[in-house]
């Protein structure tokens, strides 16, 4: 369980995590609400249509398969759009982990091992060579396009309700600085996105860092319509790192846009830091 909690944390915050092109298989749409996109090519060039909301909460089931072992945790996710993500994970009704992400900070509680982390996203870059930011985590959870990334792309066209776009050498853009510049210490990645021609929502997202043997692919199936927006009911994240393959499945239900949300987070005095 110790490694399970740690791996779940890393996977949920694996933003620029690395994923290979061509690893995704075609998946049939399930329960898709058809919202015909007027101009699929223009929507594709914008990276797809994002779910737009202020507050969102949903129940989740996290199933992690790694090194021949499968672990399932129940949980709840609360999101203030573009601002805050709060996640609680439970086993047999008892909380085993809690996580909170803001635009610039990361907090984690591992209740199984009485450990915590409080810091920023550089933790993931220094420990796992995984560049991460808030927007990418939120986007991966909700099948949204990335914000504040370079937009040099190739639109490869649409077939069988699937539109494919390819980004080559994509990088995060320095915010608040004129022009499109690469932040110091940031990396460059390649990305392949498959969109629904009918809705403009992302069906598959594949990321890879050139010359590195780490890959991440995400497949979204099943959709819930809430306040005119589509949210994925299932997300399957496959992470490949050299000889290891890890699969995280997130099943989501009970979506609500209620804006009366709390985000409790307190580090118990006896907890030890995850890093000394």
Q: What's the quick description here?
A:
The chain is 12% helix and 45% strand.
Task: State the name of the first-level CATH class.
Answer: Mainly Beta
CATH superfamily placement: Lipoprotein localisation LolA/LolB/LppX
Class from helix and strand fractions:
mainly beta
Gap between N and C termini, in Å?
A: 21 Å
- Gyration radius (Cα, Å) is 18 Å
Shape: globular
Number of helices: 4
- CATH architecture classification name: Clam
Helix content: 10-25%
The CATH topology turns out to be outer membrane lipoprotein receptor (LolB), chain A
| Helix and strand run | HHEEEEEEHHEEEEEEEE
- Strand segment tally: 14
The largest pleated sheet is described as: 14 strands, mixed
The spatial strand order of the largest sheet comes to 7-8-9-10-11-12-13-1-2-3-4-5-6-14
What fraction strand? over 45%
Number of domains: 1
Average predicted confidence as pLDDT: 80
Please mark out the parts with pLDDT under 50 across 5 or more consecutive residues, or reply none: 1-6, 13-36
């Amino acid at each position: 369980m110790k490694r399970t909690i740690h791996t779940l944390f890393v996977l949920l915050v694996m933003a620029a995590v690395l994923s290979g092109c061509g690893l995704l298989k075609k998946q049939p749409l399930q329960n898709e609400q058809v919202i015909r996109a007027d101009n699929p090519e223009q929507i594709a060039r914008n990276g797809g249509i994002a779910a737009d909301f202020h507050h969102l909460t949903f129940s989740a089931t996290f199933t992690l398969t790694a090194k021949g072992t499968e672990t399932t945790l129940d949980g709840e996710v609360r999101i203030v759009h573009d601002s805050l993500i709060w996640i609680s994970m439970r086993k047999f009704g008892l909380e085993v982990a809690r996580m909170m992400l803001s635009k610039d900070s990361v907090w984690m509680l591992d209740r199984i091992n009485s450990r915590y982390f409080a810091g920023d996203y550089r933790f993931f870059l220094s420990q796992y060579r995984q560049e991460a930011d808030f927007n990418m985590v939120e986007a991966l959870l909700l099948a949204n396009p990335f914000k504040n990334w370079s937009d040099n792309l190739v639109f490869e066209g649409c077939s069988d309700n699937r539109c494919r776009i390819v980004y080559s050498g994509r990088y995060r853009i320095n915010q608040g600085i004129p022009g499109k510049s690469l932040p110091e210490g940031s990396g460059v990645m390649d990305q392949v996105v498959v969109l629904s021609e009918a809705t403009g929502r992302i069906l598959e997202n594949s990321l890879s860092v050139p010359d590195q043997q780490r890959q991440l692919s995400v497949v979204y199936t099943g959709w819930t319509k809430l306040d005119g927006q589509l949210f994925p009911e299932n997300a399957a994240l496959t992470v490949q790192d050299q000889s290891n393959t890890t699969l995280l499945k997130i099943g989501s239900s009970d979506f609500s846009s209620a804006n009366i949300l709390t985000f409790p987070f307190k580090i118990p005095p006896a907890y030890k830091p995850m890093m000394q």
